[in-house]
Amino acid sequence: MTLALFLGVLIGAILLRLPVAFALLLAAGALMLNLGMFSADILSQSMINGVDNFALLAIPFFMIAGEVMAVGGLSDRIVKLAMTLVGHWRGGLGYVAILTSLLLAGLSGSAVADAAALVSILYPMMRKSGYPAFRSVGLLAAGGIIAPVIPPSLPLIILGVAGNISIAKLFIGGIVPGLLMGLALMVTWRFMMRKSDLEPQPKASRAERLKALKESVWALLLPVIIIVGIRFGVFTPTEAAVVAAVYAIFVSTVIYREMSLAKLAQVLKSAGRSTALVMFLVGAAMVASWVITIAQLPQQLAELLGPLVDNPRLLMAAIMVVVLLVGMVMDLAPAILILVPLFMPLVREAGIDPIYFGLMFVINCCIGLITPPVGTVLNVVCGISKTTMSEAVRGVYPFVLVYIALLALFVLIPQIITVPMHWLIG
Questions:
Q1: Contact at 8 Å (CB) between 377 and 112?
Q2: What's the pLDDT score for residue 353?
Q3: 276, exposed or middle or buried, with CB in 10 Å at 0-12, 13-18, 19+?
Q4: According to the model, what pLDDT value does residue 272 have?
């Protein structure tokens, strides 16, 4: 009864187009009333306590780093490097988009930011070279959603806080599945381009490749610093975010000299706005999470899925189906904050590795970012490229199917993720 009440109020509020943060507070308040323990003081205190978390400090700093990279020339140099390496292949600009998405993923950690950068730079080039609009938009959108999986990742930070999972281990664990997503896109793109008569880009000379590598080396060093620093305990993920922000500002202003103080002020203002939205959502979700625990909703969910606890793979498959459906109508961060506290007790009871579960959850939610009716990344890509949603859906659906197949493979053979993950974590 309480589970139905919470979900009914939450879904009803969202259908009425109430912002997700307010919908969460409304659902939490309704549940508290049902339990006879409603108190505005408890709501406000729980919200403050929810955002009073050292790990969440990583969010504003990684947002600053991502904004600086887009403005300060780091993204442009990554694209130029990818162009010299794979631009001459058949369908080369597609491979450039995929390789760039992998490299940018290690810089920003935001699907929307990466997709926006990819479309702004590569879409005009692809259209000028004769690539179909629908196919170009589909590939760029599919490449953009790799960012939340490869460290640094803002969704992995939120998931770590919501599920009480080590953020450092989530970061390290995300490397292999993120690379496999990129590989899956490359294989799919190769299949699509096998009969293409598009003129490839001229092959870059060795001197041009070395020049592009030299110009982009400062940008490429950033993910290396973050991953190596976290892996060997030099700094925590939160401290890594500060290092990333300071490093990005230093490179953009002192080395590349493409970001003025005026641009930096705009970057800080934009990052501050984004952080406020995310933190308010996190605070509301922490209130809901506290009430969920008090109302024993995880136990009710465990009773519903209880028969599957003895079969971890079947349980994971059931959870992934639910997450996939939710991800189609809800953005990534709210889906994490609402569902992870519900599923985590069940996951631990079934003996499923929390890090593996967290990575699978984020990958699944990322697919929702390019799936109608919400499809946040798909909408961003359509807006920047000025293409219709129908064209974007037509172009992206083959990649969505490939991602779902990859997700199913990870469910059937979890060792694909867990073995290299534990090897890297050590």
A1: yes
A2: 94
A3: exposed
A4: 85
Q: What is the pLDDT of residue 234?
A: 85
Token output for 238: 């939160």
Cα separation, 375 vs 362, in Å, equals: 15
Of the candidates 127, 78, 198, 185, the residue with the CA atom closest to the CA atom of residue 386? 127
How far is residue 343's CA from residue 289's CA, in Å, rounded to a whole number? 11
List, in order, residues 6 or more apart from 138 with CB less than 8 Å away.
392, 394, 395, 396, 397, 398, 399
Reduce the secondary structure of the chain to three states and give it as a string: CHHHHHHHHHHHHHHCCCCHHHHHHHHHHHHHHHHCCCCHHHHHHHHHHHHCCHHHHHHHHHHHHHHHHHHCCHHHHHHHHHHHHHCCCCCHHHHHHHHHHHHHHCCCCCHHHHHHHHHHHHHHHHHHCCCCHHHHHHHHHHHHCCCCCCCCCHHHHHHHHHHCCCHHHHHHHCHHHHHHHHHHHHHHHHHHCCCCCCCCCCCCCHHHHHHHHHHHHHHHHHHHHHHHHHHCCCCCHHHHHHHHHHHHHHHHHHHCCCCCHHHHHHHHHHHHHHHHHHHHHHHHHHHHHHHHHHCCHHHHHHHHHHHHCCCHHHHHHHHHHHHHHHHCCCCHHHHHHHHHHHHHHHHHHCCCCHHHHHHHHHHHHHHHCCCCCCCHHHHHHHHHHCCCHHHHHHHHHHHHHHHHHHHHHHHHCCHHHHHHHHHHHC
Task: Yes or no: say if 226 and 244 are a contact pair by the CB < 8 Å rule.
Answer: yes
Contact 285, 334 (CB under 8 A): yes
Q: What is the pLDDT of residues 272-302, one digit of tens each?
A: 887 888 788 778 877 777 777 777 766 677 6
Q: How confident is the model at residue 239 (pLDDT cuts 50, 70, 90)?
A: confident
Instruction: Read off the pLDDT of residues 100-111 as tens digits, 9 standing for 90 and up.
Output: 888 888 776 678
